[in-house]
Amino acid sequence: MEIPRDGIGEAGKIVNLSAATEVVVQRVLSGQVVSFTGTLASMTHKAALELVERAGGRGVQALSQGTTLLVIGEEGWALEDDGRASVKLRQALQLVAEGAGIRIVAESDWLQMLGLDERRDEIRRAHTPAMLSRMLNVPVRLIRRWARLGLLRPVRTVGRLPWFDYREAAGARRLAGLLGEGVSAEVIERSLCELSRVLAGTDRSLAQLNLLVHDDQILLRDERGVLNPRTGQRLLDFEGGSGLPAVLSGGELGSSGGVHGECVWAGDPAGAAEGGVLSFAGLAGGVRSESEPWTAEEWFHEGCRLSESGEFEQAVTVFRRSLCLLGSASGGLGVRRAGGWGGGEEPLQPDPADVNFHLADALYRGGRLEAAVERYYCAIEWAPEFIEAWSQLGCLQAELEEFEAAEESLRAALAIHPSNPDVLLSFAQLLDRLGRESEAVEYWRQYLQFDSRGPWSEHARMRAGGLESGIGGGCVAGAGLPLESLLD
Q1: Do 84 and 143 sit in the same domain of this protein?
Q2: Neighbour count for residue 203 (Cβ, 10 Å)
Q3: CA distances from 315 to 237, 263, 393 (A)
């Protein structure tokens, strides 16, 4: 792979540093013996060891009494595949206990020591869900799910678009992966506690672990039925007297009844025995007593769960049910007011704009593109500042080859947030696709200002550099607009 001009290579790792940078860091690590553990977010271990040598230190693979500095990578913490803290970290803690003068620091602090504040800032920079999806190689819907569960907290929100901390998201991915591989939460917790002795920020990872464990569906039964204690959400309970235990966890029930996502299957309701898919007819009839119907909020969260599980048709039906209840609650969804809905009352829950947005997502991923377009418009009608709805609408219109409408939608998104990298990327690619390469240059430049290390950054440099120098070669028709990366 060709090395980009600013030294960021595949998967966002630093692979080269300029001569000017070498001069700056030349004497910083003089006399230091440095080793690394965990996955580095900014560069490969090989590049880091080379950087240590250029900074006057000595990079080593193995720890010893002579090691003076251990750097912990910030892409998911230093956790082994068995969930234990890395071998090097455990060795370093033991050596410190024996009196060795080893200093243990986080990757971002090490970069600051070298005067590489720009690289440090890139680790700590906020990212959109789509950016995190590309950088961490996880679906966007998983990022959204983590946010709904509280695993990720946005550092800011612009035009309803949340921005997340990269390190926090990378940690959540690592923890979820370990739990998915069968590593016990107790082992991971002990490892995080070891990390907390030397690094700040692991308290947040412990909170993420707690939420991930609770998301394993521990369910309680009370006099009103089955309850998810984490969310307070009422769950499907077809036969309240079927003898289900007071506390249920995933995998405790046999094939005749069980836990499916956030729904308890008691007995065998119609459709549940065949792959665990429940039809709307099953949902609507006999779910709960008439005195305790599902709320619009509960239907909305169930629709999100179904969509995240790939059950798009069921999700579409459930989202529509949520919208019907919202309409009933507001007398037909009246005029929106600053103080709430309907003359000072509390705002409707969930927000109709959010329901329409997720409904559009489910329709798109279910192959119903034209219907998805209309639902994105519905979301925008409820919330004109909804930048993700504008952006995804524009990408979808481009996919349908409605280029004029696509340009209008993406320009509307840029008007709301001119520095949004997802929209800048989509708009630059649209202009390339339309043969307007000279116009695209400025948008490629702007994109690189906000995303200089993501997987699309090298392509952006090639496009901006090639177009500026008069080198042609427009994009392949139909390729590049990242609607799938925004949605999946």
Answers
A1: no
A2: 11
A3: 19, 14, 20
Whose tokens are 């969509």? That residue is 307
How many distinct structural domains can be found in the chain? 3
Bridge partners of 260, per DSSP, are 263
Beta bridge partners of 161: 158
Residue 252 tokens read as 């405790």
What's the CA dihedral at 355, 360, 363, 366 to 10 degrees? -100
Check which CATH number belongs to the domain holding 143 and give it. 1.10.1660
Same domain, 14 and 115: yes
Which tokens belong to 238? 């077809």
Long-range contacts made by residues 142-149, C-beta under 8 angstroms, separation at least 24?
A: 142/308, 143/169, 144/304, 145/304, 145/308, 146/172, 146/176, 148/301, 148/304, 149/211, 149/212, 149/215
* Rounded CA separation 453/11 (Å): 8
| 117 and 166 fall within a common domain | no
What contacts 285, CB < 8 A, 6 or more positions away? none
Sign (positive or negative) of CA dihedral 364, 368, 373, 379: negative
Is there a single domain that holds both residue 173 and residue 189?
yes
The confidence score (pLDDT) of residue 42 equals 84
**Angle 345-346-348 from CA coordinates, rounded to 5°:** 110
Are 47 and 103 found together in one domain?
yes
Query: What percent of the chain is modeled with pLDDT above 90?
Result: 28
Q: Are residues 26 and 118 in the same domain?
A: yes
**Cα–Cα dist 227/302, whole Å:** 13
pLDDT, tens digit (0-9, with 9 covering 90-100), for 203-249? 788 777 877 776 554 444 455 555 554 455 555 443 343 333 333 33
The span from the CA of 74 to the CA of 78, in Å, is 8
Residue 299 lies in a domain: no
C-alpha span between 309 and 379 (Å, rounded): 23
Range of the domain at 151: 125-214
- What is d(CA 73, CA 172) in angstroms, rounded to the nearest whole number? 15
R_g (Cα) of the chain, nearest Å: 26
pLDDT score at 2: 26
- Contact between 316 and 356 (Cβ < 8 Å): no
Q: How do residues 269-302 score in pLDDT, each as one tens digit?
A: 233 333 332 333 333 333 344 446 788 888 998 8
